[in-house]
Automatic annotation (TrEMBL):
It comes from the Bacteria. This is Uncharacterized protein.
Length: 336
């Protein structure tokens, strides 16, 4: 059985998938979650020539041939596009795994920026990182182009924490493999996007290029995850040392569905200050107008003549046209 087959997603193409009978299954992987699958001569209960096993919202499915020389068709809806897979039973040409790249953001297709490192090679590097100690003992020359750092760091999130255990650099591929441990101390299952891992070194952020992770943190658990960073987002070499002070991030499902917090709008300070000055100016103008409109009192008559009388009210108060501000009021606007 051939180990890997890689295809780049493109509408209009028909992809041949060779499936073996009675000896293993063929795993077909897409960059992220598949929307829908429909098939001809394919079923989930084994009633047709091909049997499929898939989970709702999954990014992969397994195929097995149940009849010699069988042929069938799968229609896969991914990223709002439709792709056709032509299934053929052939023991000699059968694939163990088929990886589709391209057509989405954040999945294995990101390796297109890595300067030719294939998804299969990235997964192989992850496998080498898992067995690093054993390989170093038995085949040290295979790791002569690598460098390892076991400096640990812990990153606390709202509902879980991420522990960075080690980083291994494969210089030829310009790829770093990160091994992390995800701790869920809550009593609820936490789902996360396993294609959302990223690291920050200095003031630059590097997205993952491949991952080996479950996407689920069971309650009260600690689960391992591996992911790779290859090159830079611009397609150049990153030349990152594994002992950098990395900051690691990942997106959990609850982060994407958290309600928005509405912050009450604060009054504009400048506007409020202007309103206060305007009120003071208005009060000052009104007082001055009243003072100038009321004539100065005449010599006070005898006290007995004014007894019980109200002061006279002027018949007319004069108002100015403010198209030209009165010069005698200019002192009132010195604050502007």
């Amino acid at each position: 059985m051939n180990q890997f087959q890689e295809y780049v997603l493109a509408q209009g193409e028909v992809y041949k998938i060779y499936v073996k009978k009675d000896d293993g299954v063929t795993t077909v992987t897409f960059p992220s979650a598949i929307s829908k699958i429909a098939g001809v001569n394919v079923s989930t209960d084994g009633s047709t020539d091909f049997q499929i096993s898939a989970q709702p919202g999954g990014y992969y499915f397994n195929l097995a041939a149940l009849k010699e020389g069988a042929a069938g068709t799968l229609t896969v809806v991914f990223n709002r596009k439709t792709y056709i897979l032509y299934l053929m039973q052939d023991n000699a040409k059968a694939f163990a795994a088929v990886n589709f790249t391209g057509g989405s953001g954040g999945g294995p297709e990101a390796v297109g920026r890595s300067g030719g490192v294939t998804p299969a090679r990235l997964l192989s590097l992850i496998d080498m990182a898992k067995a690093y100690d054993l390989l170093m003992q038995r085949y040290p020359t295979e790791l002569r182009d690598t460098k390892r750092s076991t400096a640990r760091a812990v990153f606390q999130f709202e509902k879980f924490r991420l522990e960075l255990l080690e980083v291994i650099r494969f210089h030829h591929e310009d790829t770093l493999v990160f091994k992390v441990l995800l701790h869920n101390d809550t009593d609820e299952e936490i789902l996360y996007d396993k294609f959302s891992f990223s690291v920050q070194a200095g003031n630059r952020t590097y997205p993952m290029s491949a991952a080996d992770a479950t996407g689920v943190m069971p309650p009260q658990s600690a689960t391992y995850a591996f992911f790779t960073v290859t090159g830079t987002p611009e397609g150049r070499r990153n030349n990152l040392a594994p002992d950098n002070d990395f900051k690691v991030g990942v997106t959990a499902q609850y982060m994407e569905t958290a309600p928005l917090t509405v912050v009450p709008e604060q009054p504009d300070r400048a506007e409020a200050k202007m309103d206060r000055h305007l009120e003071k100016l208005t009060d000052s103008v009104e007082k001055l107008l009243v003072q100038q409109a009321v004539p100065a009192p005449a010599a006070e008559p005898a006290e007995e003549e004014n007894a019980g009388k109200l002061p006279e009210t002027p018949e007319k108060i004069e108002w100015w046209d403010f198209s030209e501000f009165p010069s005698n009021l200019a002192f009132l606007i010195n604050w502007m």
